[in-house]
Design goal:
By secondary structure, the protein is an alpha+beta fold. Helix content is about 20%, strand content about 35%. Keywords: Signal.
C-alpha cells in the first residue's frame, strides 16, 4: 500500500541530505579559491630625527597608520590597508604582478612606487623606507 506521508518524508530527507552535501562542497570550493597569498612587510620613515644623526642614534622610525595600496597593472586598487603602530602591513591578493603604493599624509614625505610579484600560496615580503623630507 502507498503511504503518501512516509514517502514524502523520505524524499525530504534525501533532499536535505543532498543540499547539505552541495553546501559543504561549495564551502570547500570557496576555501580552495580564496587567495592565501599576498604581500606583507614593514614601512619605515627616515630621517626621523632633526639635524645630523649622532653616533649610535637610529634616525629611522616605523611609519604608523599610513595607507598602503596594492595596484594591478591597470592601476586599479586591488587591496588596501593601514600600517600598524610598528609600521607593519599585510594585503591578501591572488598571484600576479602589482605595484605597492604608500599614501603619505604629509606632502613633504616621499615614498617610491614598488613593483611586487606575488606567487601563488605565499606572501611576498616587501619592506620600504620612505623619505620624511626632514633635513
Amino acid at each position: 500500500m502507498f503511504d503518501y506521508a512516509k514517502d514524502c518524508r523520505r524524499n525530504w530527507c534525501f533532499a536535505i541530505a543532498a543540499l547539505g552535501c552541495l553546501l559543504s562542497m561549495g564551502a570547500n570550493a570557496y576555501a580552495a579559491s580564496t587567495p592565501v597569498s599576498g604581500v606583507k612587510g614593514r614601512i619605515t620613515l627616515s630621517p626621523a630625527c632633526g639635524g645630523p644623526p649622532r653616533e649610535g642614534e637610529d634616525c629611522q622610525a616605523p611609519y604608523a597608520q599610513v595607507e598602503i595600496r596594492l595596484l594591478n597593472e591597470a592601476g586599479s586598487i586591488i587591496g588596501q590597508t593601514r600600517t600598524t603602530s610598528l609600521g607593519l602591513y599585510q594585503i591578501t591578493a591572488a598571484a600576479g604582478r602589482y605595484q605597492l603604493q604608500v599614501m603619505p599624509a604629509e606632502k613633504i614625505t616621499r615614498c617610491p612606487l614598488i613593483n611586487v610579484l606575488i606567487s601563488a600560496n605565499s606572501f611576498t615580503s616587501m619592506s620600504l623606507d620612505c623619505d620624511s623630507g626632514m633635513r
